Structure formats: structure tokens, C-alpha cells
Amino acid sequence: MAAMTRYQIELTPSCGCKLDIGWAYRLYAALLEQLSPEQAQQIHEAPVAPLGQHLRFEAGRWIWEIGLLGEQGEQFLRPVLEQTDVYSLKDGAIKLRAKILQQETIDSLENLLEISPAKGCQHELYFRTPTAFKSQGEYLNLPSAKLLLQSLVKKWNGNFPECQIEDTDGEGLVVMSHRLHFQVFSLKSQRFWLKGKAVTGFTGKIVLEDRNQGFHSELVNALLYFSQFSGIGIKTALGMGGVEYRR
Amino acid sequence: MAAMTRYQIELTPSCGCKLDIGWAYRLYAALLEQLSPEQAQQIHEAPVAPLGQHLRFEAGRWIWEIGLLGEQGEQFLRPVLEQTDVYSLKDGAIKLRAKILQQETIDSLENLLEISPAKGCQHELYFRTPTAFKSQGEYLNLPSAKLLLQSLVKKWNGNFPECQIEDTDGEGLVVMSHRLHFQVFSLKSQRFWLKGKAVTGFTGKIVLEDRNQGFHSELVNALLYFSQFSGIGIKTALGMGGVEYRR
User: Fold this and answer.
1) Can you list the domains of chain A with their CATH numbers?
2) pLDDT per residue as tens digits for the range B128-153
3) A143: nearest CA in chain B?
């Protein structure tokens, strides 16, 4: 079962302290602390993390977006998210009150294919937190259609072993990316601080025009819709690559 | 002899007509009209154009930046540029008065290597007109370090057959690009109209940090300095890919 759920959660700090997008890493740690050591280890060591999450400041509030992917996400993390009213950071020095504002569950691949079709061939991606890629051992901090799709397929396949997107020779991805055009964009560099080290990514907007047809077009629709749950690129479980998607 | 010259020319239209960056294409045609048919054909059919040029509006003036590359640039185009006071566009309906504001000549590879070293490892590239790439049959309208260097090496090798940058297996380029980081950037899409068709490219700024050393670092310095003469990416002879370089 290809299930996934995403939550939009408002966080209110107990003290007057200032949050930062980099605190997403602390929230990740706070989440894992509430699991059994075995569950926490499984999630932390998963080759592809069963979650994507990021923090953003919007209209005077801190919003935590978190998507849970596949079995581990559903079984281990969902109960924690739905039962936790207060997250404790920095060994309890800071407490964040959590209020779920919205949630969306997709309970099967069929369900995703049903709701993901775009009205036209245009897709809008808003990269809300710094996004970067790793390809052939190299960090890349600007996107290409191929890097976007490659990252989403990897996150999909890593979390839904029972319904793999098969493309062993990579040819399908190449064809799909050639037909996915960056029509309008505005991107700028932004640093993400992770344990004292800066990773430079990009934030901003891309309007994609999809000239794929048939199955390829359906797959592009599904993958882009999925990006809201998974994030895009590297370190999406720790706060990078947070994406908003509009059609 | 690896000679190249670039000019900064102020253009003043005879009428009150409004120029546009797409008029660079008309200036290209006006230039070739002043050559013998054989010379014009040689330039027009060259696999890599012996010039890069673009138009930009700056502080209330239209500035034409044009770089001449190699033998054809020097022998055919230089005399035209230095002797023309008025360019005639649209079959003579529009006349542009031309005044050379600045020029810079580099007369040998040694000369280029002498003046190109950066003070630190930072390089600033300002993409003044829409820039795009073609790689493996695909249009790409966002850059990567590899696409930048690849384009410059191609323009270099196409115009200076007597001092080729040799990298038959492409390994040198891969190593150099891995060590050339996009540290700060701000890029947005912009369309370039060419004979009624729009090509989407990017404009904006990239601060590059070069972590190459020795010969590779010297080569990066030389290629980036060269970009002011050649432009970067596709259709640089027609007004796209116009670059300003600062160290």
C-alpha cells in the first residue's frame, strides 16, 4: 500500500525565542526521541528517509510541513505526530506547542493518480527552503528537469518497494526530462545551516511546462504532486528541499 | 596567434525608435552586409562563430558589446567595426550612429594568461542577455559549472585552432567543474526573440568560487576572462549569452 500523509502544523515557542529554518533538524531529533530505539534507528539509517519536512515563517507564524512516506512513516511517525502537543528541543530548554492545521492522506497509488492530473500542462513549484542535489559525487545547487525527476523517483522507489517506478537504463527519465521545460523561473542562493556547516541551495519558483503525453505525463503529474510529501533533493528529512506545489 | 578584441560601442538611433536586445540580430546582419559575400558566408557558416555580441540598455544609453575572436574576427570584422560610423538596419529605414567608447585587445594566449589571474578565488559573472545551453540535443536554460566551462572551451577551440585546449576524454572538464562552486546566485528567466520565435534563457548574477589549483585554476581564470569576448552558451553571435565579468 503506497500510503502517505502530510501535515501542516503551527508551532508556537514557549519562550520568546526566535526559530529558524535550520531548527527543522532539531524537530527531526525530537521526533525520533519519541520512538523506540529500534524504530528510531531504522528511520535514521534508511537509505531513503521515510519523511520530508521543513519549517517556514508565513504570515507571522512558524509552519512545520511534514510528509510521512510509506510503511515506516505511517506506522512509526504518524502516531507520534498525531499525539504530540508539545515538542521539546535543546534538552527541554525550549518547548514548541504544536497545532495541526491541515492534513492530507493519499492511501494508494491509484488514489494519487486520480487526484494528481494537472488541468493544463503547467506546474508551479515553490522551493521554500534551500534545495540542492548530489549527482555522481558532486553537489549541484541549481536544478534541471532531470535532477528534479531523478530525486523524486529515488524517494518514491525507496519508500514504496511494492510499486517501483522501473527505469533500469534511465532512458524513461531522459525522455521525460527532455519534455519538461523550465518556462518561467526566479531562483536565488540561500544557505542552510546544519550542525554548524553551511550547505548552499536555491530557493524560489519554477513554472514547468510538461510536453509529455500519456503515461509519461501521468507519471510527471504524480511525481510533482508527491513532491509536497517528500521534498526534493538532499537532506529533505532535515529541513532542506521543502516544496509547495500548485497547478 | 590567439588574438581577440572587444568593443563597447554606444548606439544612437536616428529616429526616436525604441531599440530592443533582440536587435542584436539585425546588427549582426548589418555587419555581414559590409563584408564581401565570401567573407560573410565564411563567418555565417563557421561551426563556431568568430564573434560574440549583445545589446544592453545602461544608464539611458544603448550599449553594443562585441567581441571578435581569432583570425576571421580580426581580419574581416575589425576593419568594419573601426570604420563604421552609422549602421543601417531594416533596409535603411533605421540608422544607428556608432561611437566606440572602449576597446580591449589581447594579442596572444600568453597575454591572456598574464592578465587573467583573479586576486582571490572568487569570480563574478553577470549574464546581461538571456543565456541558454544545448547539451546532447536538449535545450537547458539554467547553468551548471560544467555547462559554463564546456561552452567556453568550445568557443575557444573553434576560434584558436593553433592553441587548442585538449581534453579528449572530457575528464579535465569534469575535474575543473567539480571544483568550481556556485557560491551566491540570483537568476531569472527571460525570453529572447529571434525571428519571431522566443528562446527562454536566464539572466542574473553568479559568484563562482574556484577551488582548482595550478594549471586548472589558470585555465578557469583565462576562460572566464575570455567569456567577456565570446559570450556563453547558444546564439552568442546573435545577441544571447552576453556576459560581464568581474573579479
Assistant:
1) 4-106 (3.30.70.1890), 119-246 (3.30.70.1900)
2) 999 999 988 888 999 999 999 999 99
3) B142
